[in-house]
Model the fold of this input.
Amino acid sequence: MTSEPVVECTQLVHVYRVGSSEVIALQGLDLRVESGEMLGVVGSSGSGKSTLLKVLSGLLVSTGGKVMVGGENLNGFSEKRLDRYRRNELGFLWQETARNLLPYLSAAENVALPMRLLGAGNASDRAAELLDQVGLADRVDHRPHELSGGEQQRVALAVALANKPTLLLADEPTGELDSTTTQEVFELMRQIGRDTGLSQVIVSHDPELARFVDRVVRIRDGRVSTEHRHVSADDNGADADVDTVMMVDSIGRLQLPQEHLDELGITDRVTAELVDDVIEIRRADPRSEGDA
Ligand SMILES: Nc1ncnc2c1ncn2[C@@H]1O[C@H](COP(=O)(O)OP(=O)(O)OP(=O)(O)O)[C@@H](O)[C@H]1O
Ligand SMILES: [Mg+2]
Done:
C-alpha cells in the first residue's frame, strides 16, 4: 500500500494530570494506519490503548507529538473542522453497548439518527440497508433491550457506518460478548472493511482478534513495542503464518522483550555493537563484561 496513511502518529505523548500527580499514558508512540487497513491494538491494562483512541477521535488533545489524519494535522483543527471530522469522517464503537445506542429508539431509528443530524434525505432507506448489511433486517423495530448483546453491537456498527466514515475506531467492541458472538462481530467488521475500504483501529483483549485483522500492534508503556502481521492468511484466517517484529520508533528507540531482559539480568545499561550486519546488545556490567 503506497497511498497516504489514514493515520500517522509521531512521537505521541499524553500526560494526564490529576491534582498534583501525573500519569504518562503515551510516551513517544509512533503508529501508521494504512488506507483500508484493519489494525488490531492489544496491550495490558493501563498501557495507553484507550488514550490513543481518544486522541485519534479528537476527544483528547495530546500533550506532545503529532497526529496526522488523512494528511492533515489533527492538533491544528478548528472547532468546526473537528466537528466535521468527528461527524463525517469517523465512526465509533465502544465496549458498553449502552454507550453506542439510545435505549428509547428502535434499531432503525438509532441508525438513522446520525444521518438525520446531518440532514440526509434518505435516512430511513439507508438505515434499512445498513441493518440488512449487518444481518439484522428482521430486527429493525426492536429497541436495544429487545436485542441480544451481539445484535446490539451489530446495530452499533451500523450506526457507526451511517455517515460513511473513512476510519472506524473501536474500543473493546466485543468486551461484553461471548466468544462465538465475538468472532461473528470481528468477521462482520472484516467483511465490511473489505467491501467498503474502511480503515479500522480495533482495541481488544481478545486473542481471537489476530485472526481477523491485517496487523496487530502491541502497546507497552505507551509505545508500540511489537507488531504481528499475517503473512499468508487465507480468507478464513486459518493456518496463517504470523511474522512478529519489534518496532524501532522514529527516534531509534526499541523495547526489548521483558523475558530477554530477565534472562540476562539487564536492568538498565547495555552496550550495542555493530558486528557485520548484526547489532549485538549486551549487558553493560563491569563485573560480567563479555559474558552477557
Ligand atoms: N482521565 C484520566 N485521568 C488520569 N489518568 C488516566 C485517565 N485515563 C486514563 N488514565 C491513566 O492512563 C493510563 C492509560 O490508560 P488507558 O485507559 O489508555 O489504558 P488502556 O490500555 O485502555 O487500559 P484498559 O485495557 O484497562 O482499558 C492508565 O495508567 C490510567 O490510569
Ligand atoms: Mg481501555
